[in-house]
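Re: weekly structure request thread

Next one in the queue (674 aa):
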Amino acid sequence: MFFRQVRRNAAKNRKGSGLFFGSLVIAIIAFYTLLSLGEQDVMRFLSELESDAVQKLLAMLPQVYLVSLFFVFFLVYFACKYQTDSRKREFAMYLMLGMRRSRLFFTLLCETLWNSLVSLIIGLPAALLLTEGISMATAKIVGLGIIGHQFSFSIQAILWTICGFVAVQLLSMLIICIPLGYAQPAELLRSDAAKKQRKMSRRGSSVSLVAGILLLLAAWYLGIFLLESLEGMVMLLLLLFGCLGTFLFYRGLGGFLAGRLEGKYPRARGLETFTGRQVQENVVSQYKALAIASLLLLMALSCISYGISAGPGRTISAHSADFSIFGSSAQAEDFLHKSGLQDKIKASYPMYLSNSNREFDLENLKSVISSMEGSENIVEYMHMDYVISQSSYNKMQKAMGKEPLKLGKNRAALYTSMHRDEVNFYRVVGQAVKAGAFVGIKGKLYQLEPALYSDNVVADRAISIYMALIVPDPLYKKLAAEPGPYCRNVHLADAFVKEQGLMQATRQVDQKLAAAGLEYDSYLGGIGRNLFYSVAASYLTVYLGILFLLIANTVIGMKYLISQRQNRHRYRTLFLLGADTKRMCRSVKHQIQIFFSLVLGLAAINSIAAILSMLTSLTRLPEDQLGGVLAMAAAALMVFVLAELLYIRIVKRAACREIRTLAVWEQRERSDNL
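Done, posted below.
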C-alpha cells in the first residue's frame, strides 16, 4: 500500500510539472554526455594521434564533472522546490491525520528515488542517442567521415551519471525538507505571502539604472576594443563592470517600470494595470535572480559562439598533400610501385624546398610593409631563409585542383606557412605584395606576384616557414643550399577517399607506410594536435553553454512560478471581483512574456558585444572562414530562440494550470458556502 501510494504520488507529480521532470532528464543527459566524451569516434581517433593530449583532457573531466554537479544542483533545486511548495497543503493534511514527520520524510525520499529511477530510464537512452548523434556529426563536420563508426556504451559514464544525479537530487530534497520538518500544519495550510519589498526612491532607481547602463557600455568598450586575452587587468575590469552593471541595471529597472505604469493608468483596460504591477514587483523583489539569469544566458551564448568558432570554423587547415615521404626519392618511388597503391593515388611528385645559400635584399619589401597600418611587429621580425621550386609547387596546385603559378621574367612569389589565425600578418603582407613590392636577389630586383601563397608544401607542418620565395627552377638550382628534393608528396585518389572516408583511407595507407619502415608525415597526423584542441575546446564550451542555458531558463521559470504561488491570494481576490479564468490566463501569459523578455533582451544585447569581442580579439578568424562561422552561429541562434520559446510555453502552461486550480477551489468554496 505504501509503495503504491509513492508510485501514484510520483506519477502525479511528473504529470503535473513537466518542467520539473524535464529538468531531471536534462541533468542526466548532461552528465552522461560529458562523461562519455572519451568513447566518441573523434576522441578515439585523436587518442591515436595525440594520446598525451587526450589523456590530459580526460584527466580534466572530473573537475568539469564537479563544476557541472554544482550548476546542475541549482537546476534540480529550483525544480524540486517548486514541486514541494505546490504540495504544502498535502503535507499538512498528512501531519493532521497523524503521520509522523519521519514517515513523511521517508515518503518524500521514496518518491524522489522513484522519480530518479523513472528519469534514468528515460534519460539514459536519450543520452545514448544524443552522444551517438554528436559523435557522428562531429566526425562529419571535421572531415573524418562516419565510415567505421563504432557504437559507444560506457559503463563507467553510466555509473557516475547515476551517482551524481541521485546525489544532487537527494541533497536538494534534504535542504528543502529540513524547514518542512519544523513547520506546523497551520503554517503549511496558510497561503504563502510575498516577502515585504524594500522600497526604493524614484531618484535612487534612476541613479542605479543609469549607473548600470554606463558600466555595461564601459564593459562593451573594453571587450570590443581593448581585450586581447583572457588574462590581465582588462579582463578583470570587463568582468567587474559587466556583472556590477547588470545588477545595477535590474535594481533600477523596477522604478523605471513603475513610472511607465503610472503613465498608463488613464488608458489601462481590463487587467493591464494588474499585469504591469505584477511584473514591476517581480523585478523589484527578484532583481538579483534576473541579473544572475541574464548573466547565465550571456555565458551560454558566449560559450556556444566560442565553441562554434573554435570548432568547425577553425578545425582543419587547407588540405594540400595527404602524405609526405622523406628519405631517398628512389626508395619512395620503389615503395609506391610495389605496394599496390597505384589505383589509390592521384598524384605523386618530389617537393623541392631548401634553405637559401644567398641573402635576400628585403629593404623594398620592408619599406612597403612599414607604410601599412599595424605592421610594427611584422617588420621587426621579418626574415626570409627558404626557396621553393615553381614546378613542384605547381604540381601540388594541380593535384589540389588549383590554377598553376605562372612567373614571368624577373618575377617571384611570396610564400608563408604562418597559421591562418594571424589575420593581421596576412592582411598587411597581402597588401604589400599587391602594392608591387620587390625583393633583391644577387643584386637584381624581382617583383613579387600580387598574391600571398600559403598552401602547405608538405602534408604535416614539419617545417614552419615565416617567409619564402617561389622561384623558377633554374633560379632555384642556383639559390638552393640542398638542391635535392625535401620530400615526396602523395595525394590520395578522390574516388578512394569518397568510398572509404578520409580517416579510413588514410589509415590504410598509413599502415603500409609504417610496415615498410619509411619516415613520413600524414595530413591527419599533422592536424591531430590542432584538431584535438579545436574539438576539445568546441565540445566543452558548447556543453557548458547548453548547461548554462538550461539553468538560466529554469531559474527564470521557477522564480516566476514560485512568485505566482506566493501571490495566490491576489488571484483569488480577482476571482471574487468577477475576473474569469480566460482573462487571468491571458494576464499571466503576458507577465511571463515580459518577465522572460527583460532577461533575454539584456543578455542578447550583451552577447552581441561578447561575440564581436571573441571573433575580433580572441579567436581572430580568417576572413575566408568568417562567413561559415557566422552561418553556423545564425543556426545556433535559431536553436536558441526555439529553446526559449519552448521554455516560455512550458512556463505558461504551468502558470495557467495554477490559475485553473485556483478557479476550481474558488468554485468549491462558493458551493460549500451556499
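The first strand starts at residue 323 and ends at 325. The beta strands are 323-325, 345-351, 353-355, 386-389, 411-415, 438-441, 444-453, 468-471, 487-492, 520-522.
Next request, please.
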